[in-house]
Amino acid sequence: MPLPMRKNKGAPLPGPCSLTQCMAVISGAWAPNVIWSLRAGARRFSELRADVPPVSAKVLSTRLQELEARGVLIRNVMPTSPPSVEYSLTDLGRELIPALEAIVEVGHKLKQRQGLASTP
Amino acid sequence: MPLPMRKNKGAPLPGPCSLTQCMAVISGAWAPNVIWSLRAGARRFSELRADVPPVSAKVLSTRLQELEARGVLIRNVMPTSPPSVEYSLTDLGRELIPALEAIVEVGHKLKQRQGLASTP
DNA sequence: CGGAATCCCCAGTGATACTG
DNA sequence: CAGTATCACTGGGGATTCCG
């Protein structure tokens, strides 16, 4: 079975854009977790910290800023007596959820398949 | 490592497994690029190096070992005169492609949306 | 409560050279 | 061609502290 040996250097595959740049959308530690946590609706800063467990405030803050700048989520300041901030996914950010779910599903299958050892 | 103990106050999250662990399937530098490059078919070591551009042999080797151990791809040694090795996705690894494509699509939309905002 | 500023640290990455 | 071994380094992330 002869392989199609392609020699394209710059754009080897019909990819719409550089995968690396697109993956950067969910780059940074806990960024997927933040999106994952927001998939059920808006969450506040402390709620996100509780959801993602071992995330420091600094990193969470940085991540939220980055994700907001990327257009993945929006920041909503509630003018309450104790100031609170709500974060929620944009419509585009919401499109990432199926992707994450797909990865989760594969990770799930992979885990149980490894448990079965090698039995084809 | 402490696993997330969610309290589900306002948002019940029916997560099948820890997202972090599932995301680990594509963790490591250039791992998504390797999968992406393999989505069109089997590739050899040097082809992958050419596809992924700035990846060192060491890292690519490490990544390939990890991805093989995770059951994402398989390694096939061809007994030719110049020894060559082919890598190709497993069926489970192939399931990651739609996920990556979804991310790419969102990244794409995000880019052109940002382009409209910043560069009229 | 939310988050900005500061310091510290090490895992992961890259470059080079060597082997089969 | 397909790796492995060694070393040095960077920057992303953690803990802490202070501000609005």
UniProtKB/TrEMBL annotation, chains A, B:
Residue ranges of every copy of the HTH hxlR-type domain listed in the record: 17-115
Annotated PANTHER family: TRANSCRIPTIONAL REGULATOR, MARR FAMILY
Keyword DNA-binding attributed: yes
Alphabetized UniProt keyword annotations: DNA-binding, Transcription, Transcription regulation
Protein name as annotated: HTH hxlR-type domain-containing protein
Pfam families linked to this entry: HxlR
Gene3D superfamilies: Winged helix-like DNA-binding domain superfamily/Winged helix DNA-binding domain
Sequence intervals crossing the membrane: none
UniProt keyword annotation of Transcription present: yes
Coiled-coil positions: none
